[in-house]
Amino acid sequence: MRQNAGMMYGVLTLKIIAGRNLPNTDVSFFRRNDKTDAYVTVDTYFEGKETARLAKTKAIDDDLDPVWNETFHISLVHAVDDFCFRVKDKDQLRNQAIAEVTIRAEDIKRPGGVTGWHRLRRVGGSGPAGELHIEATFESVQDETGSNEVPRTYFPLRTGCRVKLYQDAHTPAVPPVTDVTATDGSGPYDPPCLWEDTLVAIENAKKFIYIVGWAVWDELLLKRGGTGGSPGYDEPLRDILVRKVKEGVRVCIMAWEEKFSSDVRPCGLMGTHDHTMRNWFNANNTGVHVFLSPRQKKKAEKMLEGTWVETTYTHHQKCVILDAPTGDDEVNRRLVAFVGGIDLTDGRWDTPAHELYKTLPDEHSKDFYNGVAPTTSLAYGPRQPWHDIHMYVEGGPAYDLAKNFHERWMNQNTRWYKCLYEGIQTGEFGSANDAAAGVDEEGDSSTVWNAQLFRSINMDSADFDINAISEGRLTHRKGRVFDDSIQRAYIHHIRRAKRFIYIENQYFLGSCFSWKIPETTKCPHLVPMELVARIERAIENGENFRVYITVPLHPEGDPAAVATQEVLRWQYRTLEMMYRRIGKAIERRDLDAHPRDYLSVYCLTKRDGPEDVPEGLTGPPANSIAAKCRASLRFMIYVHSKFAIFDDEYVIVGSANINERSMSGNRDTELAMGAYQPAHTKETAGEGEEICGEVRTFRLALWAEHCGRHMEEHLRPTSKECMDAMNALAEENLDKFIGDEVARNDSHLTLYPLRVDKDGDVDELDKCKTFPDLGGQVKGKNSSFLPNSVTT
To answer: Do 66 and 186 fall within a single domain?
Structure first.
């Protein structure tokens, strides 16, 4: 059998219209007008087992003939035999299923789908149960359009933009990055430097500066590395912003307020500096407006639900929005923005060299950070290397980012609405649709970008445009409206990909409905399963298709800690599912192939030599983790990126992790920007030709950083030769990292330490069952007490 039985791979459109003559389960002598508070859930079933919850309507109080009239557009990559539509009664203590109807998947897949009234059967009883009016149609992946624009989103695709892509906070023009040729072929690639560009943009702002962050550190130094005397060097962010206020610039900072931050612990339990930062700006009457935004649930239905959300979930967006001159015109201003994965906080400044010890006396002398090994310090190291991706954008998306800022500020901070710069709303800078917002139409069309903003955020954190709600551009669940367009953007572009996908992400876990051993988790987002389905389709059709994924060696924190071990367990279950399915697809085609020919997973590591330890560093405490690291001179490079490339054509850069927290839309708040160059697409490149725009150049520079050199195989990422070369190098680097020889290695790409067999079986490696120096099982371990919504 070539195809997976029952697989539905496409978009399901459900319209749950109404019910009639429903059973009344709320009959009470004391509350005679009380009736069923009905809502509907939709679940998938495969081989007799419930597998996934797809939809949940709002509850209609005290009505046996409720009208919901709700439409859901649901991406499916599920094995489904049946759909169960279940009517439930909302209750203060316990929600009760009262009636249901099962509809076969085969019926919904037929042309025209299923429509009309359907008789319900009683749950746990007998007698009449009423009827449910629904419509259900299915559109397969093959029927979807090939546009780069993600449909039905809050923010539309904007044309005529400028974009810059950044690897790490600071990227000097040195090898191996400059071993890559510039996009126009004029010479070596000249990488932009994120924080120096950010500093220049702040200095050029005349009207306003908006900063959004999970964490914002007021003592941050944006410019470092032997540039003493130039603006910004040894001048912390707070002094720069105060100076800008004195120049008449409106400065607003919106950072996440961590639940455990206080005057006693002003840096917060997670080191976000939120209260410390706010207190400094307020105490010194600086004129900088700081709002600490708690992650709230305003209308909690159950006791302690609001406290749980505020304690567990975060505001995770990271961007800077500000005005800038239009070319040499200082009078007519435009909006520009920086958005991605890098907060303006400590520990983020790094270069592609990712030094462990060498920069402690200089670039990191005022910014030492290690969130993995708490026994380390500036006195003896090592620091934690940090790899991340960010983006600059000008044009319509910068206006959309400003709109996101206003929607969040006005939702949670209405008392301070006068702090916002009014000129954005009054059209001082034009609008997102104005040609003036983008690049000169007469300029070089090969450098023009189109870009689209995506979010994960719900109605507790943003005032949504009422038109977006009425037009169906937002998602809803049990009457609550939210934006989950980041997940939908990933799904859209995974399905559109023809050649290869490259992903970097801090986490990689999800699609729990397909795990080999089902565990009670709340991690159903579709990204891992979509990647597998795309690979399965390639194997079935005989296509060359590769997926490369880079993650950290382990999540930040003690890898032996309970929470970290559980995250690792969910990641292991995800990869186990993916390789198992790929192995079966290879077996169905009877190919002489290995699952790693199609999917390879890497991490980044650093090994120093004795010559890299500066004189004057003190010896670390005996038997500490710092002492073990000093003896081995090794540490992982922490991959914090939230980044993907599709076919060297399209790029997603943002703050969203590949986990349920970021992809749900109802947990952490996130931003992501998708972008491509219209002059460099699959259509313009032609069949079989490489797409040679700026996305490709950026990938080549990034891979040169990771591999320590530019490799000819990188020019053809779709080829098996490229995957083989990457895997061979990564396995060599793994042996160097876990080996006993202490020697510098500037090649960082490392095979993730799990064994993958030809049949897709995944297990631990005998040579690396636990993480070197730090401990903790590579496969992870389930917690017996942590709520899994924390660790997913």
So the answer is: no
When divided into structural domains, the chain yields a total of 3
End-to-end Cα distance, the chain? 34
Any idea which of 222-226, 532-536, 634-638 has the lowest mean pLDDT?
A: 222-226
Q: Based on the domain organization, do 323 and 205 belong to the same domain?
A: yes
Characterize 663-686 residue by residue with b for buried, 16 or more Cβ atoms within 10 angstroms of its Cβ, and e for exposed: bbbbbbbbbbbbbbbbebbbeebe
Task: Give the three-state DSSP class for 688.
Answer: coil
Name the pTM for this structure: 0.95
Residue 690 gets which letter from DSSP? P
Angle at CA of residue 230, ends 224 and 235, nearest 5°:
65
Share of the chain above pLDDT 70, in %: 94
Per residue in 460-484, pLDDT (tens digit) is 999 999 998 888 899 998 888 999 9
Is pLDDT of 32 > 60? no
For the four alpha carbons of 245, 251, 253 and 254, in that order, the dihedral sign comes to positive
Between CA 157 and CA 153 the distance in angstroms is 9
Q: Could you tell me the two tokens for 324?
A: 């800038």
Point out the residues that are catalytic: 316, 318, 323, 640, 642, 647
DSSP string, 274-335: HHHHHHHHHHTT---EEEEE----TT-SSTTHHHHHHHH--B---EEEEEEEETTEEEEEEE
The enclosing domain of 781 has a CATH number of 3.30.870.10
The alpha helices in 126-218, defined as continuous H runs, are 194-204
Pairing of strands 634-636, 599-607: antiparallel
The CA distance from 419 to 411, in Å, is 14
Range of the domain at 482: 454-607+640-791
- Is residue 178 in a domain? yes
